[in-house]
Amino acid sequence: MTPAAGPVLLEIVEGTLASVEREVETAIARTARSPMIRDAHDFRAGVHDRRLRKLTGRSYSALVDPVARDFPPGTMRPGDVFFHNDVYLSEGGIGHLPDLCVTVPVFHGGEVVAFVQAFGHHDDIGGAVPGSMPSRARSAFEEGLMVPPIRLWDRGVPNEAALAIMTRNSRMPDSLAGDLDAECAACQMGARRLGELFARYGRGAVEACFDALIDRTTATFRRELLAKIPDGTFVWEDYAEHDGVDPPRLHAQRITLTVDKSADVPLVIDFTGTSPQAKGPINHAGDYAGGAFLKKWLAPVLRNLADSPERAAELDVNEGVVPLVEMRFPEKGTLLTPVFPAPTNARTFVILRLLGVLAGVLAKATGGRMPADQETIRYTGVHGVDDRGPYLMREVLGGGSGGRYYADGEDTIHIVPDSRNIPVEFAEARWPFVVEHLGLAVDSGGPGEHRGGLGYDKRLRMLRDAHFMSIADRSILSCWGVNGGRAGRPFRVDVDGEEMDGLVDGHPVRAGQVIRIRTTGGGGWGDPLDRDPARVARDVRDGKVSPGGARDDYGVVLAGGSADAEATAALRARLRAERGPAPFFDRGPGYPLLSGGAASADVDALGPPAPQAPPGPRT
Fold it and tell me: Do 93 and 117 form a contact (C-beta atoms < 8 A)?
């Protein structure tokens, strides 16, 4: 650490960066207009230095690289605001067109010294269906308006023509305009705050602190986390189940992890074996900027190796993780290396699955220390016309996280940091339905010594005719259990008892009909027959596990609300004998439906790495 980056100043700079990031996000939440931004909080802010490195670590963010590529910092001026949402021109930082990104440069002494950026999921940017996420899209041109990096504000003057084009292409122009105003103003405010830091302490001292913060993350991850992974090569894969165009099948994402802690780059993540790009919109353009976005996206999984959950929560993920990982991508034309104009609006099926694939391969490497599979993301909602005109209600409901070696999974977790469900009071005041039920989906968490978290059970009764939409997977495949834990229950949605596919654009719903949504439960960790019977009885009293689930999944016999010790011991002995050894991974009953009857994948076995080539049936 240089003298200029002494401990006191370093603490001040680190606190200021975190404060700027949080202040930008708070300003956006308070001034935006769309429910997805204002209420569901599906947006992120980030602070980057002049070398385009991410400095803040509370959550992921997009990249500044595409802006600097098209507008060199020497050409930027105070008052400039840059904008983009083009997936294939974002260097991997934007995954689908509804994610609109605003970037504001920070100036000191007439030069660019940093950037403040925000991106969020907006209501509608055009395309074939309301919400700009057509589940059966075969081309990016069906998904909405693509905007490469542009100068949206030029020295403080908004580009009204560009704004007019964007709002004209949106079905919700007022919300879009309001959200963009909010994000531009919030990032400009953040840039002023950061400029004050440079003015107070000087560029040299502040940039020395930036270097120190990034170097500290690199050293901490290497010392505390990577040290827990044995050297060697480990392989695992998981799957998206459908792409909206072809019949459901196994779309594989495979990771071969090579660990050499003595090397300058100790982790190599090789995606060879990932399936070819899909016809439908589940592709993710990740093979840009050396995979920088995916490195920072996946790095939080490593925090599960910390000595304690409290320590894990203290570890930020900034640019310091990038030098620790080399990413190797297959040739163009796979799920992670799609060729323009392959559609991408449901790319969450792939990038969220990658979190689980890395967790799975690390579980193999560490003897099961990693959590079981977490919930996936899904968008559900309705659209139609009411007395106020066209409307779009869309919600990102969470689900259960995986059981851990030290605790149960969490219930109804939203994978996007700080995101949330839409408040019932607001929803019923704005849209023509009533929320008849919002609670936990009983038995949805994967059975285990440490149970998987539960998903939502939500029921909407429509007051007017409308159309239902869903962008969801894990409706066939389940969140897997690990180290003897069992899989959670998959996503389910039905309209008056008629079960829907996970990918639906506009299923008609009549007034009076009920839409019931049950989101995924997390996988279980450890053998459920080893779970403390008293905890199982408490889960039943709390409404998280049914009496039948206690008996069938955990081998617990209840009597008067408590576990009958003698009957439970006898039932568990019988269940163990009938079952045999519990598998290390449990993918649930949906996997055999798509695998041709196999209960497990070749990579599920512990031991030497599986062959690199993907099996034929899934490709």
Answer: no
H-state helical runs in 42-172: 65-70, 160-168
DSSP code string of 110-123? TEEEEEEEEEEE-S
Q: Among residues 286, 284, 315, 287, which one has the least CA distance to residue 300?
A: 315
CA 154 from chain centre, in angstroms, equals: 33
pLDDT in tens, 372-422: 998 777 889 999 999 999 999 999 888 999 999 999 999 998 877 677 888
83 neighbors 102 (Cβ within 8 angstroms): yes
What residue has token string 């670590």? 57
- Distance (Å, rounded) from C-alpha 168 to C-alpha 162? 10
Could you give the dihedral angle defined by the CA atoms of residues 318, 323, 327 and 328, in that order, rounded to the nearest 10 degrees?
A: 160
Count Cα atoms within 13 angstroms, Cβ side, for 21. 21
DSSP 225: I
CA distance 301 to 160: 42
Residues 6+ apart with CB under 8 A from 14: 209, 213
CA angle 293, 522, 270 (to 5 degrees): 35
Per-residue pLDDT, 131? 94
Residue 611: pLDDT band (50, 70, 90) is very low
- Helical residues (DSSP H) of 106-248, grouped into ranges: 160-168, 173-201, 203-220
3-state SS assignment for residue 45: strand
Considering only CA atoms, which of 412, 281, 301 is closest in space to residue 60? Answer: 301
Q: Do 254 and 378 form a contact (C-beta atoms < 8 A)?
A: no
Q: What amino acid occupies position 129?
A: V
Beta bridge partners of 44: 119
Instruction: Respond yes or no on whether the N-terminal peptide bond of residue 3 is cis (omega within 30° of 0).
Output: no
Tell which residue, 530, 519, 524, has the closest CA to residue 554.
530
Quickly count: other Cβ atoms within 10 Å of residue 161's Cβ.
Answer: 8
Can you tell me the distance from the alpha carbon of 583 to that of 526, in angstroms, rounded to the nearest whole number? Answer: 10
When pLDDT is cut at 50, 70 and 90, the band that residue 613 belongs to is very low
Rounded to an integer, the average pLDDT of 240-264 is 97
Euclidean distance between CA atoms 286 and 224, whole angstroms: 28
Query: Could you tell me the CA-to-CA distances from 214 to 55, 209, 217, 235, 318 in Å, in that order?
Result: 7, 9, 5, 29, 7
pLDDT per position as a tens digit, 137-166:
999 999 999 999 999 999 999 999 999 999
Query: What Å distances lie between residue 202 and 11, 13, 205, 207, 427, CA to CA?
Result: 16, 12, 6, 9, 48
> In the structure encoding, which two tokens stand for residue 300, read together?
């939080």
Cα–Cα distance measured from residue 164 to residue 510, given in angstroms and rounded to the nearest whole number? 35
**CA 202/CA 12 separation, integer angstroms:** 13
Spatial distance between the Cα atoms of 174 and 309, rounded to a whole number of angstroms: 43
CA–CA distance from 76 to each of 50, 69, 106, 150, 514 (Å)?
A: 12, 12, 10, 12, 53
**Residue 352 scores a pLDDT above 60:** yes
**pTM of the entire predicted model:** 0.94
Q: Which residues contact 50 (CB under 8 A, 6 or more apart)?
A: 73, 111, 112, 113, 114, 115, 207
Distance of CA 448 to the CA centre of its chain: 24
